[in-house]
Amino acid sequence: MTKAKAAIIGSGNIGMDLMYKVLKNSHLEMSLLAGLSNDSPRLARARAMGIPTSDRGIEAIVENPDCCDIVFDATTAKAHAEHAKVLKKLGKKAIDLTPAGVGAWVVPAFNLEENLDRDNINLISCGGQAVIPIIGAIQKVVPVEYAEAVAANSSKSVGPGTRANIDEYTQHTREGMMKVGGVKSAKAVIVINPADPPIVMHNTIFCVTEKLDEELAREITASIEDMLTIIQSYVPGYRLTAPPQFAFDRRQVTTMIEVEGAGDYLPDYAGNLDIITQAAVHVAAEMAKRA
CATH assignment of 4-123+274-290, given 3.40.50.1100, 3.50.50.60, 3.40.50.720, 3.30.70.2860? Predict the structure, then answer.
């Protein structure tokens, strides 16, 4: 079986977790980890594992375009806006883990198949990966007029990159809830929780539907359970913390989701990062199968 060669730009928490996941995937070959500092202990760790590294960021790919077929961008929204142009010229498949919004907006459990041939796939945000599938599952049964999602993450799992992009994160998640999830209006909130021991990622998803009765409630519950099965095929730590709650007189559906990480590079509590790296590697593996 021929593997697709995968490069990662960005050697922060997300980039490192991606690296470990790529190494575990039978359809991908880890061909480059590119950062911006040759003294980085993370680049040193990768070199010690026999992985090619560079401190020249995307220039390492420009200088050696044959090094990869697929590029994961784990930098920043601002950086990816420029990287996307370069990667397109080079004919590389880009999987964007920043809230840049340049490429096709994708949640693998929801709309991957129709976007696999796109040259740039944007994974929206960790919150988007967690909540949009649930919103979409409800939307399949009955139109959702309003959706609100609150993501609570451990402070220790929210690095400087995420903090620098916090405004883009919330706006992009909200837009994804509407653009991909299909709701009429939406709101996204992130809570950075300093609790010790650290909490795992927890998402509360509140939806107001066009109508709601007991039969629709049963159909919504079944649709959510079907969606859970799909997501758990690539994010095993994704789970409901309680059955969906219904307020029939107000047409409200409330769902609570917890995401525990796989512990590949990051701690188990960093489910907020794990869900987007799992999604990214799943997308790349599906691209590799189709090539």
Answer: 3.40.50.720
The Cα 99–Cα 122 span in angstroms is: 8
pLDDT per residue as tens digits for the range 249-284: 999 999 999 999 999 999 999 999 999 999 999 999
Enzyme catalytic residues: 126
Q: What angle do CA 229, 232, 233 make, to 5 degrees?
A: 90
State the Cα–Cα distance between residues 256 and 78, nearest whole angstrom: 32
DSSP state of 58: T
Q: CA-to-CA distance for 30 and 246, rounded, in angstroms?
A: 46
| Cα 197 versus chain centre, distance | 24
146 vs 207: CA distance, rounded Å: 6
> What is the tens place of the pLDDT at every residue in 124-163?
999 999 999 999 999 999 999 999 999 999 999 987 777 8
Which residue type is seen at 220? Answer: I
